[in-house]
Amino acid sequence: MAATDTELVLLACRDGDPNAFAELVRRYQSPVRSFVRKMTRGDAHLADDIAQEAFLLAWRKIHTYRQEAGFLTWLLTIAHNQFRSHARRRAETCCQDIEETARQPGGSPATAEDLRMDLQEAMKHLSDGERAAIGLCCQQGLTHEEAARILDCPLGTVKTNIMRGREKLRRRLRI
What we know:
Rna Polymerase Sigma Factor, Chain: A; Arc Repressor Mutant, subunit A; mainly alpha
């Protein structure tokens, strides 16, 4: 039976077990890298660098994880903060593009790809907050509360950004 996140965190924190932390990295590297890639507007190399920095910081700060939120939420918060630090250093304020694959019943692969590309282009016209909130809640499947923690903003702001962002997408995509 696989160890839970809590058990792995305890092993990594209490015993300094790098194998326990390596298992956590294996479990969560894809969602973290995907989230950061969207934040960097698809720059895979930059996203990988930021994700690696986030995991290294998480390893160094594993003792600060308080289990008030899920481990993935904690990691995404670290990754988001690393992205913000990087953006400040480069004087950028870019955020993510959502790479949702649009699915239509009976649609052809070319149609789905066209819709995905249209969605990516429409996402560029959203504010940073709208893109971040939609990416976390719609693409990553996090709750509004988890997104608010990650983005370090009030719950109402996340809900408003999602509502406004979806409306802008509907208008731009004429859905």
